[in-house]
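Q: Hi! New to this. If I give you a protein sequence and the SMILES for flavin-adenine dinucleotide, can you show me the bound structure?
A: Yes, paste them in.
Q: Okay, here:
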Amino acid sequence: MAVPEVLIVGGGVIGCAVAYELARHGVKVRLLEGAGLCSGASGANGALVWPQAMARGIGLTFSLANFRLFPALGEELGVDLEYRRTGGLVAVGADQWERMVAYAAAQREIGLPAELLDGAAARACITIAWWLTTFPGATIMLTVLGINFMGDWLRDLFDPRLESL
Ligand SMILES: Cc1cc2nc3c(=O)[nH]c(=O)nc-3n(C[C@H](O)[C@H](O)[C@H](O)COP(=O)(O)OP(=O)(O)OC[C@H]3O[C@@H](n4cnc5c(N)ncnc54)[C@H](O)[C@@H]3O)c2cc1C
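A: Thanks. Here is the predicted structure of the protein with flavin-adenine dinucleotide bound:
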């Protein structure tokens, strides 16, 4: 087997993307993955390509580049990545309105469309998940319960204080 110029350990999205770009530029790459490609966080995340979540800095720069890259990436790779640019909706209470005015202005400044909607306009945007508008209380309760269970599970798994019990 040819000796690689670059050895990458870990076949998550980062390792695979680096390997792909290097190989595309003619570098001999070998990728070592211990458990299966994208078997870690890359295969179990929220699947959001969401630069709006990034604070300014290197993370935002990468995230914006990623945002621009994604629409054509499936075609380039010859696979359906199931990528859809759907937009997103963040619901906040009245006490956070001023903060969101500043947030939306900052988003627009870097070229990301962001609009502030009142309750009626926001509800009008939700056309598919009818139960989300019909049973908002139940939806919130299920979400909070889900996060709660996940928190308990993570605590049981990682809290070193529980080891001595
Ligand atoms: C619950 C959750 C939700 C998230 N939601 C989002 C989201 O919506 N949008 C978003 O952009 N990001 C999201 N993220 C973050 C995103 O998933 C990670 O930033 C990204 O997947 C990290 O990729 P990675 O390649 O660095 O790591 P990983 O995907 O974890 O890959 C590391 C790989 O290295 C392998 N490995 C480790 N050690 C060795 C070794 N010694 N030898 C060989 N192989 C090894 C592992 O098996 C694994 O496959 C989320 C993360 C989590 C946990």
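A: The chain has a mean pLDDT of 89. Let me know if you'd like me to explain how to read the tokens.
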